[in-house]
User: Fold this.
Amino acid sequence: MTAVRPDALPDYVRLAAELSDFDTDRVLDRLTFSAADKRSDWRLLRSRSAVLMAMLVLCTALLCAGLLRRADRINTAAMDTHAATASVAAATLGEPRGAEASLPPLVRLQTESRRLARTRSEGNPDSIPVARDITPDLIALLTAWPQDFPTRAQQIDIRGDAVTIRGAVRDTGDFERLKLALGAEMAGFEPPTGSANKAREGYTFNLVMRVLPQSPSPASSLADRGTP
Assistant:
């Protein structure tokens, strides 16, 4: 292996060596390097670069995996919410008939709401019975429905001043939790009443929630009595 040795020192280095009584030959020997040393330095540099690149690739892969996992969780939660909403809407509307059989439950719910609105707006309002808008009650029920334990609504009937819910739960404890959750969140309704019965798997329940009676305002009471 051929070694490369400098044949001279710069003037300022040589002058400093002479003033300090250093042996210039020893200084030149220390500056001697070979091609093997150069290759060793390059190998060390390449290995360090490879380690840094591997760490960068690993960090990027972990970051991408975390983002994909989070996006999958968000997508799963959105799909579960959509499926639960569609299930409640289907239970409210009942079995589809005719052309409505091919429509999704949420589309059928929107169609029914528009049909009711059109019925109220057409013709003589005094001759057409105006049905109570159940959309706010249904939205309130969907919002109040608990998600922290499994329940299944099999039928929801909103008529007049009452909401009737039939469904299934795991046990009577979940039934009581469902009653408490709906009673706490459904404003404008009396606390739900009903019962749960043992079924082949779990319990089936029947709940009824009635709209709170509106107390007459003082103005209407005076109008009923008549002014003196």
The first strand starts at residue 3 and ends at 4. The two ends are 126 Å apart (CA to CA). Residues 35-93 form the longest helix (59 residues). Confidence is low (pLDDT under 50) at residues 219-228.
